[in-house]
Every structure is written in structure tokens, then in C-alpha cells.
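Backbone-to-sequence.
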């Protein structure tokens, strides 16, 4: 087998994936927890609108900016994970990458809901026909639409997580326990997505589901950063892929 001297090693790809996971995690904490806690007042649309109006820089940087960082990182991560796992099964690895990219596209389009919120609160001329209560109601509508759009995007992530778990389990160069964790996390995402989209009374993700997802999403990046990939086993799988 010929090796391109300019090609990155599997361990380098693993470290890149670990860093990207870390970037996504930190940005997600800001976008989904820290900033919303400062701006969004549950059950009080008027207070939420005032908070966003008075802190538009925080809204733009903390929410929109953080989500853009996540989306750009997701694109690269999808490709890197494909490279790392294609020796196991090229077709499944490609399906997993496309699944994650589909989620990324949906979440990118979902950012339009935040743009509409800013347009409403900036008092554009064409909004003069609306009263403040109507504007607040529309702000609430678009914030809710963003939450729903996020959940729809996660639905497209489910195949990625399940396939990723299977490929990790079968790889031989990652611990099987990581694969099991990802399969469990994928089932958790599936359960949560179905509940949020199809069961009106389902409002809170069960703690056990959150824990399983969190453990998988933390354990794998830590392994990638600390241990990387067993390069010998990765390369041993590659010739079979090239002759397939």
C-alpha cells in the first residue's frame, strides 16, 4: 500500500475530531444554556422581548455567532469522522456523514428564526401595522419555531449517532464500549425526538436519557484527544477497503 507523505495520519484526524467536538461543546453551552438563561424569561414574552432588545449584541454573538461556529465545525467534523471510520464500512460511514450534514443544513436554515426575531425587535418600517403585543407574540412564535427546528435537525442526527456507534464497535481501533455508548445515545436521541415532536405532554427530556447522551458525547472526544486511534489497526483495515 502506498502512503502519501502529505496525508495526515489517523491519529492526527482523531485529534482534529476531538478538538472539533470540544469547540462544538463549548459553543453549544453558550448557545443553548448560558445566553438563553440571560435573555429568555419562560412564560413572559414581554420580558424576553425587552431583554433581547436591550442586549442585541449578546443575542447576535452569543446565540447566532455560537451557532455559526457550531455549524462550521459540524461540516468539518462530518468529513473527519468519515475518514476515520470508512475503513470499517465505507458506505455506512458515508451515510453517517450525510446524516450529520443534513442536520447541519437544517440547523443553518433554522437560524433564520433568530434573524426574524431581530427584524421584529428592530422596528422595521413594514412592522408599523403591528402593536407591541402582536410583535411580542411573533417573537415568541419564532423562538418556539427555532426550538422545534432544532429538534427536527436532531432527528436527522439519529442515524449518524447509531451508525457511528456500530462502526466504532466494529472498528477494532476504538474501544467497543464507546460504540455501545453511542448506540445507547442514538436511541436516547430517537426517544427524545419522538417525544418532543409527537407527544404534546412530553416537555422535559428524562434524566437518564440526558445522562447517556452526555456520557457518550464526552467520552468519545476525550478518547480522541488523549488516546487517538490505534494506527496499526486502522492501517490494517485500509488495504481491505482499497481492494473492495
Amino acid at each position: 500500500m502506498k502512503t502519501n507523505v502529505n496525508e495526515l495520519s489517523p491519529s492526527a484526524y482523531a485529534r482534529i475530531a476531538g478538538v472539533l467536538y470540544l469547540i462544538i461543546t463549548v459553543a453549544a453551552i453558550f448557545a443553548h444554556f448560558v445566553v438563553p438563561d440571560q435573555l429568555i424569561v419562560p412564560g413572559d414574552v414581554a420580558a424576553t422581548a425587552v431583554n433581547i432588545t436591550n442586549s442585541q449584541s449578546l443575542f447576535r454573538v452569543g446565540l447566532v455567532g455560537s451557532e455559526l461556529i457550531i455549524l462550521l465545525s459540524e461540516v468539518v467534523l462530518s468529513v473527519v469522522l468519515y475518514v476515520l471510520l470508512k475503513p470499517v464500512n465505507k458506505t455506512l460511514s458515508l451515510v453517517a456523514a450525510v446524516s450529520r450534514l443534513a442536520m447541519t443544513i437544517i440547523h443553518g436554515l433554522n437560524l433564520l428564526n433568530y434573524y426574524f426575531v431581530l427584524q421584529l425587535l428592530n422596528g422595521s418600517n413594514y412592522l408599523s401595522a403591528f402593536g407591541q403585543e402582536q410583535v411580542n407574540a411573533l417573537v415568541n412564535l419564532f423562538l418556539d419555531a427555532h426550538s422545534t427546528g432544532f429538534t427536527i435537525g436532531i432527528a436527522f442526527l439519529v442515524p449518524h449517532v447509531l451508525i457511528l456507534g456500530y462502526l466504532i464497535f466494529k472498528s477494532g481501533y476504538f474501544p467497543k464500549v464507546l460504540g455501545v455508548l453511542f448506540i445507547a445515545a442514538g436511541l436516547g436521541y430517537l426517544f427524545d425526538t419522538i417525544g418532543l415532536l409527537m407527544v404534546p405532554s412530553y416537555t422535559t427530556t428524562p434524566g437518564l436519557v440526558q445522562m447517556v447522551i452526555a456520557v457518550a458525547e464526552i467520552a468519545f472526544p476525550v478518547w480522541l484527544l488523549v488516546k487517538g486511534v490505534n494506527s496499526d489497526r486502522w492501517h490494517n483495515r485500509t488495504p481491505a477497503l482499497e481492494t473492495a
